[in-house]
Design brief:
With 123 residues, this protein is an alpha+beta fold. It has a single domain, classed as Alpha-Beta Complex (Sufe protein. Chain: A), CATH 3.90.1010.20. The chain is built from 3 helices and 5 strands, in the order αβββααββ. α2 crosses α3.
């Protein structure tokens, strides 16, 4: 019963905020970052090509796979689709969601972009 309700809420809660930002086409590469999830550190790799986030890969995570994997997949998809991390956390998996979003944010900071929730042109 709990699993059914959890996944029903999960499907309804990942919502993108913001619009497609102006991108800096000079930002390219693969960047790693970490964030604190519920059970420990979440480590990610973020690939940026021509200023667009093209992939987010979970490198390490101590989160409970049964719950975290669907959450991570939805958030990763939303980040790539919207080219930013202004994504709502998933209800019932708030700490895991925040850990992933923080890890992506930290990776993007290493890209050298003027980063404020989205990749934008350096001034």
């Amino acid at each position: 019963m709990f699993k059914k309700m959890f996944f029903s809420m999960l499907m309804l809660t990942v919502v993108s905020c913001g619009s497609n930002p102006k991108v800096n086409p000079d930002i390219n590469g693969s960047f790693e970052g970490t964030g604190d999830g519920r059970n420990g550190e979440v480590k990610v790799s973020v690939v940026v090509a021509k200023g667009l986030i093209t992939a987010v890969t979970i490198l390490e995570s101590l989160e409970t796979e049964e719950y975290a994997l669907p959450v991570f997949e939805q958030i990763r998809t939303a980040i790539v689709a919207n080219n930013n991390i202004n994504i709502d956390v998933v209800s019932g998996a708030t700490l895991s969601s925040q850990g992933l979003l923080t890890a992506v944010e930290n990776a993007l900071k290493d890209s050298g972009a003027n980063f404020k929730g989205k990749l934008i042109k350096n001034k």
